[in-house]
Design a protein that fits this description.
The complex is a heterodimer. In chain A, about 75% of the residues lie in helices and about 0% in strands. By secondary structure, chain A is mostly helical. Chain A has a single domain (about 45-275), classed as MetI-like fold (Orthogonal Bundle), CATH 1.10.3720. In chain A, helix 3 packs across helix 7. By secondary structure, chain B is an alpha/beta fold. Chain B folds into two domains: about 1-130 and about 255-310, D-Maltodextrin-Binding Protein, domain 2; about 135-250 and about 315-345, Periplasmic binding protein-like II (D-Maltodextrin-Binding Protein, domain 2). Chain B is about 40% helix and about 20% strand. Chain B is built from 15 helices and ten strands. In chain B, helix 2 links the parallel strand 1 and strand 2 (about 65). The longest helix of chain B is centred in the first third of the chain and has 24 residues, at about 1-25. Chain B is globular and about 65 Å long. The two termini of chain B are about 25 Å apart. In chain B, about 45% of the residues are buried. The chains are: A mainly alpha, B alpha/beta. At the A-B interface, helix 3, helix 5, helix 10 and helix 11 of A face helix 1, helix 3, strand 7 and helix 15 of B.
């Protein structure tokens, strides 16, 4: 093993140059140009910004997006934490199978998964029919075409983004610390809450921020499962670009969204650094 | 989300690629052997292929490549990037007005189109109205049949969930009719009145749809009992009842993006001519029950299907033609109020 010399430092840069260039030309420069659109309105450089502040609807949609992202993040955390913990406790083949089940959704198109929820949760879907037949309800429950549907669909798509980093963080915890705690007489509950849980917090927080950021840009899920009643910013920007077309305002809104995402990302970097340390 | 983005980037790159390639290899005045069009897609695109492109290609040898979907955003992107890759692009009537205001279109050459008789409102300096479509009421066979918008909006006597369009342009006129405005007095639409009427029904609306395929699916799934739908999606469909009464008649236009290669534009005028031929329109109407611009079309259609079609004499008489000019002039205000209304759901 020692004979393999890893390329690192400045000499390694030539290997990432093609990707770096492609990102610069195909992504970064267009994004900057797009941001410039926000100041290019014929009605004056700041007109779309004034518009955005004056007609509060755009910022309210943005706020609504943040609220939904927060809900999805919390749901992912509550569902994902026990799942990651359970994965940690499994051994060998059982863990491999369970991990495969967590990763499996990545292999199915997001579009297919989103439509699948219609079959499962619709008025004539599996869940409502079963509940009706069992006599537990008399009217079908409204599980999709509302905010609940968007939260379910989004959580389904994003759960692995929380579980996998969290699982890795949990694996990285030195078991001897836990043994030391119980050796000193702490009951299992105390070991978990005072030793294990605090050690996983940076990993959990980093996973949460990742889910939060990804939810901010969700487009297909609210479009299909929201029933048109869940206003989210990506759909609003699509409307402003493709249908109106008011690109200046769309660019201004995108700028606000990008800045908000950067702030979240800064938190993510800080927390994942703390997690690594 | 990912899929869409990739698709957009992919098609943008493809557009740019074909454009520059075309410029490199095209000699000065070569005969056009192919041009591209951007249309709405779905069965409507298939009807264009069968009804108009097939006879056009047979006559001229020029092939036409279809892309979809269309929209103002695409038009603006092509024109402002000076990389016009389609000689024809489909727009709705308010979009046509807006595209003209933004100076995104070439004028049409009506002498070259040399049209057969067509309805006057389908003829515009910059737009060729090729397809009539209606926005109408549809319902599940088990639900009580409404015959007016007042009844459609009456959730007491016509109980059941509704699916309404997530487009102000396809529901505000119905809302004021439901509130008692006579069909001939709709325009200018009283926005306060329209939104108040929508407020009264919003708790009974299960879905605000964006895709035309949704209303028939929602009715069949039992998700809703009543829906406002585009006629071509529900007329003649198994398990769905519908009525053209007080329906809204709209026209889809083909336009030529500003900066289109003149030779391609000239070839495209030939395809537009094919779209005035009633026999071709009958073929297209056989693919999707939307009708063309010819007053002579009715006689060529299967007579037992006439009640499914937007412009058959019997249906035209009970519908209202959308006022594209009014929609265009008020577009920004309407969209803001619409988004505010949606936030209150």
């Amino acid at each position: 093993m020692s004979r393999i010399k890893l390329v690192s430092g400045p000499s390694g840069i030539r290997f990432v140059m093609p990707l770096g260039l492609a990102m610069l030309v195909a992504f970064n420069i267009p994004v900057v140009l797009m941001l410039a659109w926000g100041f290019s309105s014929p009605a004056g450089a700041l007109a779309p910004w004034a518009d955005m502040i004056e007609r509060t609807v755009y910022l309210r949609v943005l706020a609504n997006t943040f609220r939904i992202a927060l809900i999805c993040t919390l749901v992912c955390a509550v569902l994902g934490y026990p799942l990651a913990y359970w994965l940690c406790c499994l051994q060998g083949r059982a863990r491999m199978i369970a991990l495969a089940l967590v990763v499996l959704p990545f292999w199915v198109s997001i579009l297919v998964r989103t439509y699948a929820w219609i079959v499962v949760l619709g008025n004539n879907g599996v869940v409502n029919r079963s509940l009706l037949e069992l006599g537990l309800i008399t009217e079908p429950l409204a599980l999709i075409y509302n905010e609940l549907g968007v939260v379910i669909g989004t959580t389904n798509v994003l759960l692995p983004f929380l579980v996998l980093p969290l699982f890795a963080a949990m694996l990285g915890i030195d078991r001897r610390v836990l043994q030391a705690a119980s050796g000193l007489g702490a009951p299992p509950g105390t070991v978990f809450w005072r030793v294990f849980f605090p050690l996983t917090l940076p990993g959990l927080a980093a996973g949460c921020i990742l889910v939060f950021i990804l939810t901010l840009g969700f487009f297909i899920t609210p479009a299909i499962l929201g029933g048109g009643r869940v206003s989210m910013i990506a759909n609003m920007i699509d409307l402003l670009i493709n249908r109106m077309p008011r690109w200046e305002l769309a660019a201004a809104l995108s700028t606000v969204l990008l800045l908000a995402t950067f702030v979240c990302y800064a938190f993510y970097l800080k927390l994942s650094k703390r997690g690594a340390a | 989300m990912k899929l869409r983005r990739r698709h957009l980037i992919g098609s943008a790159a493809a557009l740019a690629g074909t454009a520059s390639l075309g410029r490199l290899v095209r000699p000065a005045h070569a005969a056009v052997t192919e041009f591209r069009m951007i249309e709405a897609g779905g069965p409507s695109g298939d009807s264009i292929e069968a009804g108009y492109i097939a006879p056009f290609t047979e006559k001229t040898g020029i092939s036409v490549v279809r892309e979809s979907p269309s929209g103002l955003g695409k038009l603006r992107a092509m024109v402002e990037a000076r990389s016009v890759t389609a000689a024809l692009l489909e727009l709705s009537s308010p979009e046509l007005e807006q595209a003209k205001a933004l100076d995104l279109l070439e004028p049409l050459d009506w002498d070259a189109i040399d049209p057969l008789p067509m309805f006057p409102e389908a003829r515009d300096d910059h737009g060729f109205g090729y397809q009539y479509y209606s926005t109408i009421m549809a319902w599940h066979p088990d639900a009580r049949a409404p015959s007016t918008w007042a009844e459609f909006f009456d959730v007491e006597n016509f109980p059941g969930r509704r699916a309404l369009p997530d487009y102000a342009a396809y529901i505000l006129a119905m809302a004021v009719m439901a509130d008692g405005v006579a069909p001939e007095d709709i325009y200018p639409i009283d926005l306060d009145r329209a939104f108040a009427k929508l407020e009264s029904i919003k708790d009974h609306v299960a879905v605000w749809w964006q895709a035309g395929a949704q209303p028939p699916q929602l009715i069949r799934d039992g998700e809703v009992q009543y829906a406002v739908a585009w006629s071509g999606r529900v007329a003649g469909q198994e398990g769905i009842e519908y009525s053209f009464a007080e329906g809204q008649l709209d026209i889809a236009f083909f336009t030529v993006p500003k900066g289109t290669n003149p030779d391609e534009k000239a070839a495209a005028m030939g395809l537009l001519h094919e779209m005035t031929v009633p026999e071709n329109q009958a073929v297209a109407a056989g693919v999707i029950p939307y009708t063309g611009n010819s007053p002579d079309l009715d006689a060529l259609l299967p007579q037992d299907n006439l009640e499914q079609l937007p412009t058959s004499a019997q249906n035209r008489a009970v519908q209202v033609l959308s006022d594209a000019r009014w929609w265009y002039e008020n577009a920004d205000e309407i969209e803001l109020r619409w988004q505010e209304f949606k936030l209150s759901l």
